[in-house]
Design a protein that fits this description.
12 helices, 10 strands
Length: 319
């Protein structure tokens, strides 16, 4: 496993990381989740991503149980969580980044994870109703309390991230060190263009998610939706509609021969494509079984095969 610094911070994250969105509490019970985490950690993964809202808090509880039973040194792994949507419907409990919510949310997450601190907290979405300076101060105080080591944003605009950094610098506060955006061959504009100035101006790193476009780039949906896939889960019908878009399915088919020429799976090529971007600090992968984790890890071996000619072929296939 290779490691990259998280932006300009000193924190080193594994190029490939492991996330719990959709799977924990929906597809994976605690035993299987623990097996997948063990497989990832055995391959050198040190970053495990979560969020308060995943499975309404159950995802954090499952990960916390797994960490306790695995018994790893706390200094050997990184855990993140994310706040915005909340677990309840009160006016200060959902869709907010106000100070009251944030400083209560961290205590709930730490209890579910069974940890004294988390390494990174992401503000899961921007909150147009809360002044950014209030959120920046709250995140600074969260770090100062020792409950969090670093903080970042997720799916914020470049302008919002820049404003948060400038407020932090002006008041000598802890500024965000990373953004967690979606990034794959079908969704690349934000990471490659919108955020371009953030990397040099503020040292922002990225912990990118959905390298397989919710499984589309694994090729498993070419013949329809398998009953054991995330797109078949109740409540994720919107995902099925997106995955079965004919134009995208056709483009996936054109990528298959390129992967075959490289001697790898389409999924491995798609993950490696994300790693090819030097502004990607880590690619968050997901899996519902240990064997899938091991297959995803092999994507590292494909990166060197993605020559400029191969990258041009991929670009042409998805235009």
């Amino acid at each position: 496993m290779r490691y990259r610094r998280l932006g300009r911070s000193g924190l080193k994250v594994s190029e490939l990381s492991f996330g719990s969105w959709v799977t924990y509490g929906n597809q994976l019970n605690e035993s299987l989740a623990r097996e997948c985490m063990a497989a990832a950690h055995g391959a050198g993964v040190n970053f495990f991503d979560n969020a308060e809202v995943y499975a309404k808090g159950r995802s954090e509880s499952i990960m916390g149980d797994a960490l306790r039973k695995l018994g790893w040194r706390r200094s050997s792994y990184i855990v993140s969580t994310k706040f915005f949507w909340g677990l309840y419907d009160g006016p200060n409990e959902t869709n907010t980044l106000n100070r009251k919510y944030l400083l209560q949310a961290i205590d709930g997450s730490l209890a579910r994870l069974g940890l004294d601190y988390v390494d990174i907290v992401f503000c899961h979405r921007p909150d147009p109703e809360t002044p950014i300076d209030e959120t920046v101060w709250a995140m600074h105080d969260m770090v100062a309390s020792g409950k969090v080591t670093y903080w970042g944003t997720s799916e914020w605009s470049a302008a919002e991230i820049a404003m948060a950094c400038e407020i932090a610098e002006r008041h000598h506060l802890r500024k965000p060190v990373a953004e967690q955006p979606q990034y794959n061959v079908f969704h690349r504009e934000r990471v490659e263009k919108e955020y371009a100035r953030l990397y040099d101006d503020f040292g922002i790193g990225t912990t990118t998610w959905s390298p397989l476009a919710s499984g589309l780039l694994s090729g498993k949906y070419n013949a329809g939706i398998p009953p054991d896939s995330r797109a078949a889960i109740k409540g994720f019908e919107w995902l099925a509609d997106r995955i079965l878009e004919p134009a995208r399915l056709a483009k996936v088919q054109t990528l298959v021969p390129i992967a075959q020429e490289l001697g790898c799976t389409l999924a491995q090529m798609s993950i490696a494509w994300c790693l090819k971007n030097p502004h990607v600090s880590t690619v968050i992968t997901g899996a519902s079984r240990p064997a899938q984790v091991e297959e995803n890890m092999k994507a590292q071996d494909v990166v060197a095969k993605l020559t400029p000619d191969v990258m041009a072929k991929i670009d042409a296939a998805i235009e």
